[in-house]
Amino acid sequence: MNLADQKCESGVDPLKPEEAAKLGEQTPGWEIAEKSIERTFKFKNFVEAMRFANRITAIAEEENHHPDLHISWGKVIVELSTHSVDGLSINDFIVAAKINRLMEQA
Amino acid sequence: MNLADQKCESGVDPLKPEEAAKLGEQTPGWEIAEKSIERTFKFKNFVEAMRFANRITAIAEEENHHPDLHISWGKVIVELSTHSVDGLSINDFIVAAKINRLMEQA
């Protein structure tokens, strides 16, 4: 199933680096760090950036998996990580894929 | 006049450190760094943090002076700086005072 159509679940396992890299193929634009994935989105002003942050919030609430958001004029940096595994889980890639889909719908 | 009742203006001058320190007396909770001021606000969950970020956005738009926001679960770090002076101006303290007033109204 497409990552963007999957649901986050609790009790997930940490991903091995090769597993994260494989999932990363389905989340273009996201950079994989040791314990998180991150993507920068650009907008034409502050309000548009916040509008995007609010749409991300709806996804985060639905999936009960919340990112860190760094919002500045015309820019949102989204950072995803799974605290329960102190690193990356499939949940991060599921939310990343859903966020990418938001952009396609924009 | 109370800082929170003032309006941001363009063409402001950079503040000297002692001027910034003096204005900082009117913005309790804000830490003064060399080129910015910053305050951390705590909330009970992600949605409450985003709600606060949206209320800050309304102030920022009205004053045409926008912060950087770092939002995570139950937390918003607000960072204010004046790009036109590459440091601090009175505008930063005006917006900080207005944000503090938001908290008093919450």
CATH topology value of chain A:
Gyrase A, domain 2
Order of helices and strands of chain A: HEEHEEH
Helix fraction of chain A? 25-40%
- The CATH fourth-level homologous superfamily of chain A: Transcriptional coactivator/pterin dehydratase
| Most residues in contact, chain pair and counts | A-B, 15 and 15 residues
Beta-strand level of the residues of chain A, as a percent range?
A: 15-25%
How many domains in all of chain A? 1
Lateral strand order in the biggest sheet of chain A: 1-2-4-3
Counted beta strands of chain A: 4
CATH class assignment of chain A: Alpha Beta
Q: Supply the CATH architecture of chain A.
A: 2-Layer Sandwich
Give a short overview.
2 copies of one chain form a homodimer. The first copy, chain A, has helices at 17-24, 46-63, 90-105, and strands at 31-32, 37-42, 68-72, 75-80.
Structure description:
The structure is a homodimer of 106-residue chains. With 106 residues, chain A is an alpha+beta fold. Chain A has one domain (15-105): 2-Layer Sandwich (Gyrase A, domain 2). Helices cover 40% and strands 18% of the residues of chain A. Chain A is built from three helices and four strands; from the N terminus they run αββαββα. Chain A has helices at residues 17-24, 46-63, 90-105; strands at 31-32, 37-42, 68-72, 75-80. A four-stranded antiparallel sheet of chain A has the order 1-2-4-3, covered by helices on one side. In chain A, a hairpin with a 4-residue loop joins β1 (31-32) and β2. The two termini of chain A are 23 Å apart.
SSE inventory with pairings:
The structure is a homodimer of 106-residue chains.
Chain A: H1 17-24, E1 31-32, E2 37-42, H2 46-63, E3 68-72, E4 75-80, H3 90-105
Antiparallel strand pairs in A: 1-2, 2-4, 3-4
Helix pairs in contact in A: 2-3
